[in-house]
Amino acid sequence: MAHILLVDDEKVARALYGDFLTGAGHQVTAVGTSADAREALLRQKFDLVVTDLILPQSDGMELLQFVKVEHPGVEVVVITALDKVDPAVRAIKYGASDYLVKPINPEVLANAVTRGLNNRSVLTENVELRRYVALLETAQRMALTLDREKLLNTACLAFSQACEAPAVMAVLKKDEGWHVEANHGLPEGEATEKLADEIEALLQEGFEIKGQELAVTLPSPFKTAWLVPAVNGDDALGAVVMLFSDDMPELSLASAGTLARHLGLALRNVGKFAEVEDLVYLDDLTHLFNSRYLELVLEKEFRNVPPPEGKAFSLLFLDLDYFKSVNDTHGHVIGSKLLVEVSRILKGCVRDGDVLCRWGGDEYVALLRGTDSGGALKVAERIRRSIENHKFLAREGFGLTITTCIGVASWPEHAQDKATLLDFADRAMYRGKKGTRNIIYMAAKGLEATPAARHHTAAPTPAAAATDDQTQP
Question: How far apart are CA 430 and CA 318, in angstroms?
């Protein structure tokens, strides 16, 4: 059964056509003017409009144009007493599904209505199919994204478009808590921050896996906040909160469910990728970063802070003194345990934002962000003294002592590129190894190049040579 709007200024015609369409099983609303037809279209949903071309105050052609613009899913059958070609061509051009000339045989009207409804059904199915295909393509793009930040921004935009949500917030589960990590359609400011805090607190209390409306304080013009969890198996890895200025559209929930399932899969993939990435960039023994990671972070540091605007940063190159004797005397197992203990001492001597790496063997490198050579010397001395005074493997009954040589090089004071900075720090450390050991040297012109056997990466760039700036214990 279809809901049909019949528009004709002749009462007899309305009764005749209305009775026939009702008898054919349709629900009919009959009106006599274009203005009444517009009001009816605003109040109710119709599947098809049957309208006369000649109407009081406004003709049927204007009504046809109004329907196709404001209600594009509604088909229109035009009827008229004018047996002329030109109005028929115009009607079809403006989107009418059929054009009938009075007097109209009931069977002809029935066929026209059936064709119009069939057209509408096909078009609706095509629109739904295109919408579903677009939804799947968007969901698949999310599932294949392995960068967490890019994924969350993509998800916010996808939920906004597919679910007709003016604003969207993406929330992740991290460290046993929930944190809003991205949003689309919300300005920065106190209201957005307050909303994020409320959402995080509510999620901490628990939520329904199927989704739910949230009772939160919404900034104008929003009226509804709807939460959709991104689930992988039984675990909620994240969630999306959609904000609407009115009630949530009916189709939005189904679209949101599809996107949320793919977002859950994507978050799982991102987590797995991060685990693999950790294995690639972490040292197996000490669980510090390795030289491969240092190369990446140095590359980023130089790319993000070009001179002269960038803040200074420094490298400390450390090598343990006479470590071979520990292995020779106590064995490699004890030597490995000592290296792990050294890494713990180093962590206690630098800040959270600094980067610690095991360069290889008994060598370590520390990248000190936002630290010039003067600050780096202080950190280096703290490390040197901490290692010198520590009793290693005391719990195992050894109480070993060891010292270290440290080379210091800073950007932009000593070098303008990654390879030279590493080479200068290495040269400064090697200067200490050739002297008294247990010492700190600052990079400077004139320092001897390190032996080729020490090069863990490509041969260093030619370094300027020079004086020995040193800090002795």
Answer: 9
CB burial of 453-470 (b: ≥16 within 10 Å; e: otherwise) equals ebeeeeebeebeeeeebe
Q: In what order do the strands lie in the sheet with 167-174?
A: 177-184, 167-174, 235-244, 224-232, 212-213
**How far, in whole angstroms, is CA 30 from its chain's centroid?**
52
The DSSP-derived string for 391-412 is: -BTTTTT--B---EEEEEEEET
How, if at all, do strands 404-411 and 440-442 pair?
A: parallel
Please state, in angstroms and rounded to a whole number, the distance separating the CA atoms of residues 265 and 232.
6
Sequence letter at residue 154: T
Would you say the CATH fold of 289-471 matches that of 144-274? no
- pLDDT per residue over 84-132, tens digit each? 777 788 888 888 888 888 888 888 888 888 888 888 777 666 656 666 6
CA atoms within 13 A on the CB side of 22: 10
Q: Tell me the Cα Rg of the chain.
A: 37
Among positive and negative, which fits the CA dihedral 74, 75, 81, 86? Answer: positive
Q: What is the pLDDT of residues 271-321, one digit of tens each?
A: 877 766 667 788 889 989 999 889 988 988 887 765 555 688 999 999 999
Which residue carries 């040297």 as its tokens?
A: 441
**What pLDDT is recorded for position 380?**
97
Where exactly are the structural domains of the chain? 3-124, 144-274, 289-471
CATH superfamily of 144-274: GAF domain (3.30.450.40)
Cα 17 to chain centroid, rounded: 57
- Gap between the Cα atoms of 100 and 13, Å rounded: 14
Q: For a pLDDT cut of 90, what percent of the chain falls above it? A: 36
Angle between helix axes 323-330 and 332-349 (nearest 10 degrees) is 140
Look at the block and give the residue holding tokens 């999310």. 142
Residues forming a β-bridge with 243 = 167, 225
- Tens digit of pLDDT for each residue in 187-208? 888 889 999 999 998 888 877 7
One-character DSSP codes across 91-126: HHHTT-SEEEESS--HHHHHHHHHHHHHHHHHHHHH
Domain 289-471 has CATH 1.10.287.70: no
Answer CATH for 3-124 from 3.30.2130.10, 3.40.50.2300, 1.10.1740.10, 3.20.20.80: 3.40.50.2300
